[in-house]
Design a protein that fits this description.
Helix content is 39%, strand content 16%. The chain is an alpha+beta fold.
Length: 457
């Protein structure tokens, strides 16, 4: 029996056990073969392990090869992410081929690092508002396919093909309302926590929502709201309000934007509202709140720049009407845009039931603490700068030559102007035609045509 065998073996000393094993091995060829193979394999494994160790430690700082993550083991889910970021130190939202310091570059780096996606190309990515360099956002929305813990439920991508090439009109007509299963979402990955662990401190994911497979962060959006902060100073609040209301409605805003003649042909946009309000508990600080369906390139900053001229009394409110009348003012006058630093994409709106933002309590508490620490650091810096300003301003300035006189204001309609939109579009068309004529495909077609003609002759 097993107990007797153990008892018998316990009677042997070390040398006796070795002799016994060798005797059994010599009398059992299969065991001998197995032992030899095992020994060889073990030796080989040790050797390979030693070589691998040597390879990974031969150069200081090199890490061991990472195991490839098998995304095929998981379902994917179409998810909307609500994102906040302070954009002052970033080169805009959109990825750039020659610049890694964009919001999207950091976002996709985090998504791949946490194995939530395999690549941007396969993620069905869409974004709501494209913010420029230095612009911030409190309510930016992006949507994409992410790895999921669930096998089924709202937003889970099934094997059956789904329409992926709907145009904006089809998306607008489609019913994107889904049955949000909050109980099932409790078992889902905590996307907020996972991404915020690896994102830079100025970029935070604040909420997530399962969305329909055909949801587009851009084309499913019903309205966008921006805020622009400013110090009122000596500007007239009534004039700012009066002029701001003249911008509300459906207008051609080509004189209030940077014209992108290559990609945009329609410059009519609908402004839903524009208000001016004092920022609570901040004397002297005010804010424009501007809502619309969509905005042109630099439109907010151009509108604010003209409003500031009106508030300062340098232009009358009627300049708004003049610039909106593109038949009588087809050329945009030259003027500087307002600064990008106080501009914030505040909110992106969707129809009820399309998104149901989830903010897990334990994760959101950490987010609030993070934002408090960020605010605290900024408040300390503000206190230092304020003290420096107070100290410098307290020193009396001795009499001396007059300071540089500011150049007088030139009315907008008396300034140099851009060429008309039609002229810019004509140049773009000429450039495209010239490029098409010089392309290899066009040259080949022309050579083929010549050959055919010669044959006919």
């Amino acid at each position: 029996s097993r107990s007797m065998q153990r008892h018998q073996l316990e009677q042997y000393d070390k040398d006796g056990l070795i002799d016994l094993i060798l005797k059994i091995q010599s009398s059992t060829p299969l065991l001998a073969s197995s032992s030899s193979s095992s020994s060889s394999s073990s030796s080989s494994s040790l050797s390979e392990g030693h070589e691998a160790n040597a390879a990974t430690t031969s150069s200081k700082g090199k890490s061991k090869a990472k195991r490839v993550f098998d995304m095929s083991r998981y379902k994917q889910r179409h998810v909307a992410l609500r994102i906040s970021y302070i954009g002052w130190d970033y080169h805009g939202l959109a990825s750039q081929a020659d610049n890694d310091n964009t919001i999207e570059a950091h976002l996709f780096s985090a998504l791949k690092k946490t194995c939530l996606i395999t690549s941007r190309e396969d993620s069905h990515y869409s974004r709501c508002g494209r913010t420029d360099k230095g612009v911030s956002a409190f309510g930016q929305v992006v949507a994409l396919h992410l790895r999921s813990n669930l096998k089924e439920g709202p937003g889970i991508i099934q094997n059956t093909p789904t329409p992926s090439h709907m145009d904006r009109r089809e998306i607008a007509r489609a019913s994107l309302v889904i049955d949000h299963d909050l109980d099932a979402d409790e078992k889902e990955l905590d996307y907020v926590y996972i991404l915020n662990r690896v994102l830079p401190p100025e970029i935070r994911v604040t909420a997530w929502s399962a969305v329909a497979p055909d949801f587009s962060a851009r084309f499913s959006c019903t309205h966008r709201t921006y805020k622009y902060f400013f110090l009122l100073g000596t500007m007239s609040l009534p004039l700012l309000n009066e002029a701001g209301q003249m911008l509300v409605g459906d207008h051609d805003f080509r004189n209030f934007c940077k014209i992108d003649a290559e990609n945009v042909t329609n410059f009519r946009r609908v402004m839903l509202s524009l208000t001016v309000e004092q920022v609570p508990q901040n004397e002297g600080m005010y804010c424009f709140t501007i809502s619309g369906y969509a905005f042109l390139w630099h439109q907010i900053r151009c509108m604010v720049a003209v409003l500031f001229l009106i508030g300062a009394g340098l232009e009358g409110p009627s300049i708004i009407t003049t610039l909106l009348d593109v038949e009588h003012a087809p050329e945009k006058p030259h003027y500087d845009m307002a600064s990008e630093v106080p501009l914030v994409l505040y909110d992106c709106g969707y129809e009820p039931g399309v998104v149901a933002w989830r903010r897990p309590l334990h994760t959101y508490a950490k987010l609030v603490e993070h934002m408090y620490q960020y605010w605290r650091s900024s408040a300390l810096k503000e206190a230092v700068v304020d003290l420096m300003h107070t100290q410098v301003a307290s020193v009396p300035i001795p009499p001396g030559p007059p300071s540089e006189v500011k150049a007088p204001h030139i009315p907008l309609m008396n300034r140099p102007r851009d060429e008309t939109l039609e002229r810019k579009q004509s140049r773009v068309e000429t450039k495209r035609n010239k490029a098409a004529e010089q392309s290899p495909v066009t040259k080949r077609v022309k050579r083929d045509d010549v050959g055919d003609t010669n044959m006919k002759r």
